[in-house]
Design the sequence.
């Protein structure tokens, strides 16, 4: 195998896995004065460059899933391209350009990380958010809800009954109609909800104001939208229908970014 190709492949293996054994192989192919340019900074010296391709960095869990091309000659340089599967908080692609010294050691790596474009703000929750939230319990990733109780104490709880009611509202069937989150709406209706699925790097954060709906139409609709396992905790429908008017949502996942901004 061409020694420069071997050098580029060793570097890529270390970059995408972070494994010490791969980094040990890559170290043999780095020049003492090697430089890594990320587009935002320059990392200089073999030891410093090696640190950046060893261990677990923020994008390491994504890089391992990339489709990495074979090193392709471009004059005296080699180029490698990678495409990544749809994931949240992840690059869409990466380009590496390798330069070499007279001993065929890597003297410079120019790294271009291609990110997905930011999403424009909207007033309505995107349809794909509806699918994520409504399937959260079945996915094993129920939403965490934060509120402030009547004593001013912040409280967190998991709410498997959380669903998207419409383009502007989330809703929770609260089994205990006299519970803390229901009482808290009288003194402080502000709520925040967090959804996180590490497997797909999906994060959604919602902010809104809650109120309890008492009309039977809304109560029945919400109860019937609630997962059956949650319904079975309250078969007599004695719970409360907590409606959340979303004023802000942000985050993203495989289908793209989320940026909802509405007048409070």
Sequence:
């Amino acid at each position: 195998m061409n020694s420069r190709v071997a050098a580029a492949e060793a570097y890529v293996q270390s970059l995408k896995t972070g494994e010490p054994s791969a980094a040990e192989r890559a170290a043999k192919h780095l020049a003492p004065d090697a430089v890594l340019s990320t587009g935002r900074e320059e990392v200089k010296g073999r030891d410093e460059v090696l640190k950046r391709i060893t261990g677990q960095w923020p994008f390491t869990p994504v890089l391992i899933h990339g489709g990495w091309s074979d090193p392709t000659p471009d004059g005296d340089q080699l180029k490698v391209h990678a495409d990544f599967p749809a994931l949240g908080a992840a690059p869409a692609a990466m380009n590496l350009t390798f330069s070499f010294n007279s001993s065929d050691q890597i003297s410079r790596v120019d790294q271009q990380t291609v990110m997905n474009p930011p999403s424009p703000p909207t007033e309505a929750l995107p349809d794909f958010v509806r699918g994520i939230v409504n399937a959260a319990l079945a996915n094993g990733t129920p939403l965490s809800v934060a509120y402030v109780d009547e004593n001013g104490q912040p409280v967190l709880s998991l709410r498997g009954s959380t669903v998207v009611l419409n383009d502007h509202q989330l809703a929770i069937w609260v089994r205990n109609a006299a519970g803390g989150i229901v009482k808290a709406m009288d003194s402080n209706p502000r709520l925040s909800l967090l959804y996180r699925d590490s497997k797909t790097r999906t994060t959604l954060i919602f902010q809104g104001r809650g109120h309890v709906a008492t009309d039977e139409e809304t109560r029945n609709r919400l109860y019937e939208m609630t997962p059956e396992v949650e319904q079975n905790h309250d078969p007599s429908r004695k719970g409360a229908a907590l409606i959340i008017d979303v004023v802000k949502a942000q985050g993203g996942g495989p289908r793209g970014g989320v940026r909802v901004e509405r007048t409070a």
The chain has two domains: 3-115, 127-261. The longest helix spans residues 3-17.
